[in-house]
């Protein structure tokens, strides 16, 4: 972002402060009491938003499958640290093939430092800490950038940071997608790229390379959005203030060169592993074009807002986790007024151009208005065939609008804070009217079936020797809610299992992406029993196939949670492999005699 400090209505330049001030006092690096209070407020709000699970650990956030995924990733990162294992690959899921973690959202940048929490308190606590730190860290990082570079008023910086960290889109992502919520390095990277001083280029470049490399291990998708947004912002600023752009361009290019070199060295092997290592894939297992936003969503409130309408929001977004654009009826209007009022400033013009473009990209193609397909091609159509960008979910482009609006809010509040009571009162009312309906509510939770006691208590160990797997029944291999992944995460990856919720290749000879492992005939048979509530015909052909599938999975035992004698899935497994036995919390089949 632009880095000059705003003192007057004069344009803020990227290369120098708007007001020549030799005294460095306004740039104090020592935290003030106000800073501590602001961060404490952010922390209190983040804890409030996650309280539904802190108080009731038997529940998960509403997108339970995604939480299971990230709990497993955090548990896997802890195992890699404590066991000295390869953090980029794991054979604990998708037996016998394993999973390329670098090609999935492994969030090693959170999982590795949270290892002590995961080891001592478990994967659920680590996940909640990660959500809390992502929200607080993002808000705090933006607050620091705003306070040091863009505004004088701590109140203005606090408002901007609050929106950047806790906007509806951020809260929607936080309940499910850690890799999208962890954006605390975004303002750090921008501050390094657009630092106005021309000294310390090598130091800033090295720090930039380190920050970019770390962001890759938090979430590559955020880094893609950041690179695109920074490029658009820089281009728009250059058009608004050509003289400043000409002065700064050589410094920025040199800084970026050093950063690219450092990041390239650090990321060479991980990126090779991602795109060419075992378990790599090509494309995505879903059509990204389908994940777009409705134009009307920009003036609607999200489900997780105090004024939100769950039904209305659900109709205007791909799913509850992608309600990235829901800004309410007043904030877009306020943003337009701020841009008009501060239009003379190149910073504001560049922000407006960036925000508008990314809002349009989030609409996908064709554009939908109030659930009506207009047939009009959106600008996203130009990116749909670009390598890497064609893998980006269009709805998430709207997340770029969050910091754009956060900075505009901070600039507006800072301006009116210096305009006297007459100016401050109406603008304070306008900001309150725009933001209060968007105040976030605690993230919704849903009940989840507990891990069977035979699994959580370790009773399975007498049935599963080293090198063999435990198979949850039914063996879900390609769906979002994966008992194998959930049970594995909650037991610290104590056992290996087939399947899981991940993206991988269709087969060893076909790298096209798909969700989970290819379904085996037995898993399809058991899924049919679960979905229809009927026991399918089982003959010698099905029994022989079941033995083949169990051998493929290296299975030693199958476990079904909360099993009852009349359950069709249990009856189907009995018909395939013979009767099992009751165990604490479920039913177990010892299949070692069958598979050898």
In a few lines, what is going on in this structure?
The protein is an alpha+beta fold and 596 residues long. The chain has helices at 33-49, 51-54, 64-83, 108-111, 115-121, 123-150, 154-166, 168-174, 178-181, 186-193, 201-216, 220-240, 242-276, 310-315, 331-341, 346-361, 401-417, 421-435, 453-456, 483-490, 521-532, 540-553, 568-577, 592-595; strands at 59-61, 89-90, 99-100, 368-369, 372-373, 445-447, 469-472, 503-507, 510-515, 555-561, 581-583, 586-590.
Describe this structure in words.
With 596 residues, the protein is α+β, with helices and mostly antiparallel strands. Helices cover 51% and strands 7% of the residues. The protein has helices at residues 33-49, 51-54, 64-83, 108-111, 115-121, 123-150, 154-166, 168-174, 178-181, 186-193, 201-216, 220-240, 242-276, 310-315, 331-341, 346-361, 401-417, 421-435, 453-456, 483-490, 521-532, 540-553, 568-577, 592-595, and strands at residues 59-61, 89-90, 99-100, 368-369, 372-373, 445-447, 469-472, 503-507, 510-515, 555-561, 581-583, 586-590. The strands form five sheets. Strands 7-10-12-11 form a four-stranded mixed beta sheet. Strands 1-6 form a two-stranded antiparallel ribbon. A two-stranded antiparallel ribbon has the order 2-3. The longest helix has 35 residues, at 242-276. The chain is elongated and about 80 Å long. The model is unreliable at 1-26 (pLDDT under 50).
């Amino acid at each position: 972002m632009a880095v000059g400090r705003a003192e007057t209505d004069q344009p803020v330049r990227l290369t120098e402060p708007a007001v020549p001030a030799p005294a460095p006092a306004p740039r104090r690096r020592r935290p003030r009491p106000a800073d501590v209070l602001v961060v404490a407020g952010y922390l209190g709000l983040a804890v409030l938003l996650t309280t539904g699970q802190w108080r009731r650990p038997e529940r998960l956030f509403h997108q339970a499958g995604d939480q299971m995924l990230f709990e497993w990733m955090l548990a896997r990162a802890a195992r890699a640290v404590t066991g000295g294992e390869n953090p980029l690959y794991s054979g604990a899921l998708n037996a016998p093939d394993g999973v390329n973690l670098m090609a999935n959202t492994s969030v090693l940048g959170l999982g590795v430092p949270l290892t002590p929490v995961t080891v001592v308190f478990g994967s659920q606590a680590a996940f909640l800490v990660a959500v809390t730190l992502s929200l607080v860290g993002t808000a705090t990082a933006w607050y620091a950038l705003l306070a040091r570079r863009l505004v004088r008023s701590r109140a203005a910086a606090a408002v901007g940071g609050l929106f950047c960290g806790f906007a509806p889109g951020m809260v929607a992502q936080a309940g499910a997608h850690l890799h999208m919520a962890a954006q605390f390095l975004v303002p750090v990277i921008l501050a390094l790229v657009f630092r106005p001083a021309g000294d310390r280029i090598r130091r800033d470049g090295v720090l930039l390379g380190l920050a970019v490399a770390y962001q890759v291990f938090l979430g590559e998708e955020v880094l893609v959005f950041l690179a695109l947004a920074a490029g658009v912002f820089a281009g728009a600023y250059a058009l608004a203030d050509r003289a400043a752009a000409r002065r700064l361009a050589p410094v920025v290019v040199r800084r970026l060169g050093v950063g690219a070199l450092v990041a390239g060295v650090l990321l060479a092997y991980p990126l090779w592993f991602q795109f060419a290592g075992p378990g790599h894939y090509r494309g995505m297992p879903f059509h990204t074009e389908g994940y777009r936003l409705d134009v009307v969503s920009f003036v609607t409130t999200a489900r997780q807002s105090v004024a939100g309408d769950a039904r209305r929001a659900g109709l205007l977004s791909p799913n509850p986790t992608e309600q990235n654009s829901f800004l309410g009826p007043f904030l877009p209007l306020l943003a337009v007024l701020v841009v008009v009022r501060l239009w003379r400033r190149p910073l504001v013009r560049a922000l407006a151009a960036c925000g508008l473009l990314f809002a349009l990209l989030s609409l996908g193609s064709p554009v939908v208005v109030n659930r009506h397909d207009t047939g009009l091609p959106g600008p996203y159509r130009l990116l749909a065939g670009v390598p890497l960008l064609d893998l980006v979910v269009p709805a998430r482009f709207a997340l770029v609008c969050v910091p754009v609006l956060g900075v505009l809010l901070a600039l507006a509040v800072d301006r009116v804070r210096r305009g006297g009571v007459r100016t401050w009162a109406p603008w304070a009312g306008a900001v309150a009217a725009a933001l209060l309906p968007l105040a976030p509510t605690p993230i919704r939770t849903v009940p989840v079936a507990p891990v069977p006691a035979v699994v959580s208590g370790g009773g399975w160990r007498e049935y599963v020797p080293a090198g063999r797997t435990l198979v949850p029944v039914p063996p879900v291999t390609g769906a979002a809610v994966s008992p194998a992944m959930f049970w594995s995460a909650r037991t610290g990856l104590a056992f290996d299992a087939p399947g899981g919720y991940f993206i991988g290749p269709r087969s060893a000879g076909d790298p096209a992406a798909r969700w989970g492992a290819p379904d085996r005939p037995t898993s399809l048979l058991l899924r049919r029993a679960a979905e229809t509530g009927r026991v399918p015909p089982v003959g010698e052909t099905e029994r022989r196939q079941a033995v083949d599938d169990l051998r493929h999975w290296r299975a030693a035992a199958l476990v079904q949670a909360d099993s009852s004698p009349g359950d069709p899935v249990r009856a189907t497994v009995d018909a395939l492999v013979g009767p099992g036995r009751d165990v604490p919390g479920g039913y177990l089949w010892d299949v070692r005699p069958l598979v050898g």
